[in-house]
Amino acid sequence: SFYTCLTASRCKGFERILIKGLAPIFDIIRSNSLSVLDFLFVQQSLHSYKHNGQLHRVWEETLVLKRTAMMVIGANDKTRVEESDGRTWITREPAICYFHSDYWFNIIAMLRTDGIYYYCNISSPFIFDKGVLKYIDYDLDIKVYPDMTFDLLDEDEYETHKSQMNYPDALDRILYRHMDYLTGWIRQRKGPFSGEFIDQWYERYLTYNRRDSIN
Questions:
Q1: Is 87 left (phi over 0), alpha (psi -120 to 50) or beta?
Q2: Helix (H) or strand (E) holding 158
Q3: Distance from CA of residue 204 to its chain's centroid?
Q4: Catalytic pick from 57, 80, 87, 187?
Q5: Is 115 left (phi over 0), alpha (psi -120 to 50) or beta?
Q6: How many whole angstroms from its chain centre is CA 153?
Q7: Tens-digit pLDDT profile for the chain (215 aa)?
Q8: What are the start-end ranges of the E strands in the chain?
Q9: CB 3.0 to 4.6 Å from 158: which of 7, 139, 175, 196, for a disulfide?
Q10: Distance CA 55, CA 91 (A)
């Protein structure tokens, strides 16, 4: 289950306590145990939920380029997205997606003609459930520009949902602490915020697509 996954020894003490309290919510998106190889170079959906268990947003197809026990790297281009109210739209540019089971955020790098933009979601760690990658979206977002300046977005939405859905105080502390980790990565150009990282995984995505089109 998601609870079992997140209470593994790598999780920090009070984060384990918080996750135990959230177990009824996470049970809504319970995980199955599947092989890492089951997900390599396959198209999967991404589903985000809210703290109350309601489905928030669905990305129809993302190609998994790498998956370990801790991390998933995926890519998509012009994929269909469905909002919770039924509205749909198509992404406009290629994107590299980064998820890590130790961090309460995920990162989407969007490759545009004038540079790489990032949209970072403050969220729960991810799980897999029947071939779908799932996480809980916690409202706060950081938008990063090609020059590595950034804006914090949706603070009002976070405060509203925190009150409406009764976010625990421990959760609030975790989310802001991990937002500090995230802004540290941005300033240091660490991991996905390195141009070389994005170039490497985008080239792998293009290589797979070229090979797939030949076959």
A1: beta
A2: helix 155-164
A3: 20
A4: 57
A5: left
A6: 16
A7: 343 333 333 344 445 545 555 555 555 444 443 444 444 556 789 999 999 989 999 999 899 999 888 899 999 999 999 999 999 999 999 999 999 999 999 999 999 999 999 999 999 999 888 778 999 999 999 999 999 999 999 999 999 999 999 999 999 999 999 999 999 999 999 999 998 999 999 999 999 887 666 65
A8: 43-49, 55-67, 71-76, 80-83, 88-90, 95-100, 105-112, 115-123, 127-129, 132-144, 150-153
A9: 139
A10: 19
Q: What is the 3-state secondary structure (H, E, C) of 43-100?
A: EEEEEEECCCCCEEEEEEEEEEEEECCCEEEEEECCCEEEECCCCEEECCCCEEEEEE
Residue with tokens 């080239």: 203
Query: Cα–Cα distance between 172 and 79 in angstroms, integer?
Result: 32
pTM over 0.85: no
Query: Which structure tokens are listed for 106?
Result: 């995920």
43-49 and 132-144 strand pairing: parallel
b/e map 163-189, b = 16+ CB within 10 Å: eeeebeeebeebbeebbeebeebbeee
pLDDT tens per residue across span 58-73 = 999 899 999 888 899 9
**How long, in residues, is the chain?**
215
Joined together, the tokens standing for residue 59 give 């990305």
